[in-house]
Design a protein that fits this description.
Elements: H1 13-66, E1 85-89, H2 104-109, H3 124-129, E2 145-151, E3 157-162, E4 170-175, E5 177-186, E6 204-212, E7 227-230, H4 240-253, E8 258-263, E9 268-273, H5 276-279, E10 315-316, E11 329-330, E12 340-343, E13 349-353, E14 368-390, E15 395-397, H6 404-409, E16 421-430, E17 466-469, E18 521-530, E19 535-544
Antiparallel strand pairs: 1-2, 1-17, 2-5, 3-4, 5-6, 6-14, 7-9, 8-9, 10-11, 12-13, 14-15, 14-16, 14-18, 18-19
């Protein structure tokens, strides 16, 4: 036994050790296979869940766009009963997709997709010095807003309305018409009042509100049809902020498209249900308040976007730790402006944005369409958008591509050589006001047909915002002086006030749509992120409005 190191069956100890090693290798291989299968199953399940969520959001969005009641043509008349289409383009872009500033600690622990645009060889310290390099590569444009009136006869909209017999209760009704609003909110950094309330900083949540157009809904007790609520008599004509706060509270409790009106006979503010004709007018649409602290009343053009910065330097208009309704927030110093406050379940202001705010309290989450989103990007088709080819790679550059700005400016710059890029065509989906990325937005290439959406929109909204609106013709015959000159409604008064081009020509009108063109088509990009498996999925929803 000692001489041969063999067992009774003639098996050497070496052979036993080899057999054990092979067995361990096999067990390790089996464990590895099971781990890989488990990981693969986890990823597949996550992909299936993501695809399901994205498919649902895409289908709902596609159905909303396909059911738009208003032709994408400007100068709509309220009596046509078409409603409206409004597309708001925020200042963020794919190249500059977030206003968050990540410090060294937050950048190192962020779960956002890593930046794929940074230069090779940089370190974290250099990373912090270069603001552009801090943008996570998966993030995209997400501060756009889509607002439109929609008809759906197959699947009517369902929502809550007040119960006139019981102020503490509500009724559920259906309507084939609704005012639909899509928007996204970016999670702030987990600091201060926002700590623990929002998710991963930088990710976005996409929301959808569907406000029923139902002027036939049961009215306020003893009121004419359409009157949904009468404000207390103590809220007089000058107390516009209080009246607007009541309107905001109503729209967050109920799913009805309503407007605020002053009744001189009753000397009361009242909340009235909208019709499609009412919604053609900007002042009657959801969140089109545009009330500023330095003014006594709401003002034309009734902007939906705040003129202030959306950060926690705002303070709530009313003191105290809790609010029964979402308050107005005023900017401390500088140009007075309104903003939207996001409240927690205790009614405390935890975040202030200059876009739209989601539902809160008992209804929190009812308007959520997608969580952990990376992009919600609205693009309009511009038949004049220039397309360039980069000579060395033969890559076609559209306005949404990196490098397009350099190609567009090539003839005006000494470097690079203008011959490096050549114009190959026109027509692309673009961000409204994409010319704002230039220092001089009047810089137009002489060899191209003038683009439609290159310059900023002409209506005074918040700085950096552009807007497409089907507009309302009633501003030209409403008896108000919107342009502040010595004449009222000079575009419809039957006189040749400007002594040019005849009576009541277009040049005499007091107002003008931001872009006075027909919108041919638009695209919406939805991009979401799965945190556990680090997967990204994106879909594009397109809709044609008028014939090419």
């Amino acid at each position: 036994m000692a001489r041969g190191m063999t067992t009774r069956r003639g098996i050497t100890l070496v052979e036993m050790l080899i057999a054990m090693a092979i067995t361990l290798v096999m067990i390790g291989a089996v464990v590895t296979i099971f781990a890989n299968v488990t990981g693969s199953v986890q990823k597949r399940r996550a992909m299936i869940e993501m695809s399901g969520q994205l498919r649902h959001a895409r289908n709902v969005l596609q159905r909303d766009l396909a059911g738009a009641t208003c032709p994408a043509v400007t100068w709509q008349r309220p009596e046509s009963n078409h409603g409206y289409l409004e597309i708001i383009e925020g200042p963020l872009t794919d190249a500059n997709p977030t206003g968050l500033i990540f410090d060294e600690q937050s950048a190192s622990v962020s779960l956002l997709p890593r930046n794929n645009l940074v230069k090779p060889g940089f370190d974290l310290e250099q990373h912090m010095k270069d603001p552009d390099s801090l943008v996570p590569g998966g993030l995209g444009d997400a501060d756009d807003i889509l607002m439109l009136t929609v008809r759906n006869e197959q699947e009517p909209f369902v929502g809550r309305v007040p119960d006139p017999t019981n102020p503490q209760a509500s009724l559920t009704i259906e309507s084939p018409l609704a005012e639909v609003v899509w928007f996204a909110v970016e999670n702030p950094l987990n600091t201060g009042a926002a700590a623990g309330f929002f998710g991963e900083p930088g990710l976005r949540t996409i929301y959808r509100r569907a406000l029923l157009i139902a002027p036939w809904a049961p009215p306020y007790e003893g009121s004419p049809p359409g009157v949904m609520q009468l404000l207390p008599a103590v809220v007089n004509r000058s107390q516009v902020p209080t009246a607007l706060a009541a309107l905001i509270a109503f729209q967050e409790q109920y799913d009805l498209s309503v407007r605020l009106e002053w009744d001189p006979q009753l000397a009361r503010w009242k909340i009235v249900a909208n019709t499609l004709a009412d919604l053609t007018r900007r002042e009657n649409r959801y969140e089109h308040h545009h009330y500023r602290a330095d003014q006594q009343d709401r003002t034309f053009p009734f902007a939906v976007i705040s003129a202030g910065m959306g950060d926690l330097n705002f303070e709530p208009s009313a003191p105290g730790s809790g609010h029964s309704a979402r308050p107005f927030c005023y900017r401390q110093g500088g140009e007075p402006a309104t903003a939207r406050a996001i409240l927690n379940d205790n009614g405390e202001v935890v975040h202030v944005v200059r876009g739209l705010a989601p539902l809160w309290g008992k209804r929190r989450g009812e308007d959520v369409m997608l969580t952990d989103a990376l992009a919600f990007d609205l693009r309009l088709f511009d038949p004049g958008a220039p397309l360039f080819v980069e000579r060395s790679t033969e890559t076609v550059l559209a306005p949404s591509d990196f490098g397009w700005k350099q190609a567009y400016r090539a003839p005006f710059e000494s470097f690079p050589d203008k011959e490096d890029y050549r114009l190959v065509g026109q027509g692309a989906y673009v961000d409204a006001g994409y010319g704002l990325q230039f220092d001089d937005s009047d810089l137009l290439r002489p060899e191209v047909v003038p683009p439609w959406f290159f310059a900023a929109s002409g209506v005074p909204l918040a700085p950096g915002y552009s807007l497409y609106d089907t507009w309302s013709f009633h501003y030209e015959n409403n008896g108000l002086n919107e342009d502040g000159d010595d004449l009222v409604d000079e575009g419809t008064n039957g006189f040749d006030d400007d002594l040019a081009y005849g009576v009541d020509d277009v040049g005499e009108r007091e107002t003008m749509p931001p872009y006075d063109v027909s919108l041919r088509a638009m695209q919406v990009k939805l991009r979401i992120f799965e945190l556990d498996t680090q997967q990204i999925r994106e879909v594009t929803v397109g809709q044609h409005f008028v014939a090419e």
